[in-house]
Amino acid sequence: MQSTVRIGDFCLGDGRIFATAEIGINHNGDVGIAKQLIDVAVASGCDAVKFQKRTVEVVYTPEELARSRESPFGETNGDLKRGLEFGQKEYEEIDRYCKEKGIIWFASCWDEGSVDFIDQFSPPCYKIASASLTDDSLLQHTRSKGKPIILATGMSTLDQVDRAVFVLGAKELVLMHCVATYPADWRELNLRVIQTLQGRHSVPVGYSGHEVGLFSTLTAVAMGACMVERHVTLNRTMWGSDQAASVEPVGIQKLVKEIRIFEQSQGDGVKRLLDSEIPVMRKLRRKG
């Protein structure tokens, strides 16, 4: 069974930021790659890794699955979606490997059957993707599992976010500001929405970034994001729709390191004369 996660873990009040490495579908249907990405997250000091789970025939229409789309898995979009989807065997290995490495994992579940599937692994929490924010039935089914919920708010209006919060309830809920383009244009990130959501709902607010680079994610932390999530990849030039919007191993390591520096540098807000300043004061101050 995975470690318990509480909403307090995402917003402890002591300035610690919960860092999640989004593996998503960047494993390209290969458990070996998934394990390498888990290793990257562990080495970087991330708190968790996240995957995505879909029942392909439920999430996509027959017409969409039949649409022509070349990929390493075949000639249709259905071939691609099925090729990227992990099943029982793969998730059992992911669960085992994460326990071995000492990192928690959870998933974005895109349909009720996927929620039930992931539930067998006793996840510490659930993520609801931006695309699912208006799916009241899925929201209610996810809430029925009694776990904390992380709700992405991309591609949504404030009214739609309000509705989702009403359906889910504010208990054990984290909202994640994000822009649902891959990669996102930094001019469209609108990071002040973090503060808008904080003022609108009495829940912790985090940031899920799809932009190139790290600066805006660090800015989101400085603006009050209690949790950050970035897609990770072994190499941004790898095949896959999300790779270009992802962070490579050196990048995620740098991001988490700088987040931890930010945490330590915040202090408590009390202005005081530091012991380390006294020798400098005695040397440079003329009066007082």
List the helices and strands and how they pair.
Blueprint: H1 7-10, E1 18-24, H2 31-44, E2 48-53, H3 56-59, H4 62-66, E3 68-71, E4 74-76, H5 77-84, H6 88-101, E5 104-109, H7 112-119, E6 126-128, H8 136-143, E7 149-152, H9 158-168, E8 173-177, H10 193-200, E9 205-209, H11 215-222, E10 227-231, H12 249-265, H13 278-284
Parallel strand pairs: 1-2, 1-10, 2-5, 6-7, 7-8, 8-9, 9-10
Antiparallel strand pairs: 3-4
Structure description:
By secondary structure, the chain is of the alpha/beta class. It has one domain: TIM Barrel, CATH 3.20.20. Helix content is 40%, strand content 17%. The chain has helices at 7-10, 31-44, 56-59, 62-66, 77-84, 88-101, 112-119, 136-143, 158-168, 193-200, 215-222, 249-265, 278-284, and strands at residues 18-24, 48-53, 68-71, 74-76, 104-109, 126-128, 149-152, 173-177, 205-209, 227-231. An 8-stranded parallel beta sheet has the order 5-2-1-10-9-8-7-6. A two-stranded antiparallel ribbon has the order 3-4. Helix 8 (136-143) links the parallel strand 6 (126-128) and strand 7 (149-152). Helix 2 (31-44) packs parallel to helix 12 (249-265) and helix 11 runs parallel beside helix 12. The termini are far apart. The mean pLDDT is 94.
